[in-house]
Amino acid sequence: MSEPIIIAFLGKGGVGKTVLSALMGSILSAQSRKVLFVDADPAMGLTSALEVSDIKTIGTAREEIIRQAKISNSSEEKERLADIVDYLLMEALYEGPDFGMIAMGQTNTLGCYCPINNLLRSTIKEIASQYEVVIIDAEAGIEQVNRQVVESVHYPVIVTDNSKRGAQTATMISQLLKKVPQMAPVKVGAVFNRVIEADKDLMNIIRNAGMEYYGNVKPDPAISKLDRHGTSIAKIDITSLAISGMISILEKMGAFGQKIKTGK
Ligand SMILES: Nc1ncnc2c1ncn2[C@@H]1O[C@H](COP(=O)(O)OP(=O)(O)O)[C@@H](O)[C@H]1O
Ligand SMILES: [Mg+2]
User: Fold this and answer.
1) Which of 34, 73, 209, 235 has an alpha carbon within 20 to 30 A of 25's alpha carbon?
2) End-to-end distance of the chain based on CA atoms, in angstroms?
């Protein structure tokens, strides 16, 4: 099993995690890298932002597994559970021409079921190992990602805007990252989204909290237009402001080398 590079977008609600996840993944996939998106938002924002439909969620798969676990009493049947997990997860994997995707859906409705979470997580890891990059839209927060998706995120990208509250949330998330066991990020960085220029004072708050400033993405009419028509963010014009912003963010992040090109 090879190790993919794992990136997760975190931050205050509405700040642009979903859009930036989609943009980064699209750029990397246009470079012919194998990208797996993980939509960890119960409302499935990324799934819809990339126009993926008819996806079976991990939450649904998990409920089926729990049901099976409750009715299997003999040890033989319990052994079969691992196969069921594999099967249900493969059903939950969307494989498109440009990227793969799994959606977590509603995963907290039935309590912890930690052994099942662990079983699911190890199967997600197996799926992820088929990809070079995993991009997680971590709307539900880093603890849920750690419990239900992957133990470690190499590059948490904290999204903020020019608001004090955004910076405070970013600071809180960066502190939380240090407390999550086995998270061990390579680098923790922040992105200012939907701003012409990042506010200097807010940037200082970010830096003082130990985050690296990766850059900003400007308000982009191309995103608003795609939004208006419900068109996939992946279809964004490569000459748009948001793409050039994201390319310099990727370069600053440094996970894929210092020079990022667009196009196949
Ligand atoms: N740079 C941008 N330019 C224009 N609109 C943007 C930009 N970033 C995000 N948006 C819009 O702002 C809204 C919130 O973004 P979204 O990615 O859904 O936030 P989050 O996932 O953090 O809740 C969406 O309608 C999105 O299209
Ligand atoms: Mg979102």
Assistant:
1) 209
2) 26
264: pLDDT strictly greater than 70:
no
Residue 69, pLDDT score: 74
Contact 107, 124 (CB under 8 A): no
What per-residue confidence (pLDDT) applies to 231?
96
Q: Which residues surround ligand 2, an ion (CB under 5 A)?
A: 17-18, 45, 139
99, pLDDT greater than 80: yes
Name the strand (E) or helix (H) holding 148: helix 142-148
Residue with tokens 């993919």: 4
**pTM as predicted:** 0.94
Is residue 174 within 8 Å of residue 143, measured between CB atoms? no
What's the 12 CA to ligand 2 centre distance in angstroms?
A: 10
Contact by Cβ (8 Å): 134, 38: yes
Q: Which two tokens stand for residue 65?
A: 């597994």
Domains and CATH numbers, the chain: 5-253 (3.40.50.300)
Query: Can you read off the two tokens belonging to residue 132?
Result: 């070079």
Q: What is the mean pLDDT of residues 224-238?
A: 96
Instruction: Name the residue with the closest Cα to ligand 1, atom 11.
Output: 16
Say which residue the tokens 């069921």 belong to. Answer: 84
Strands 100-103 and 94-95: antiparallel
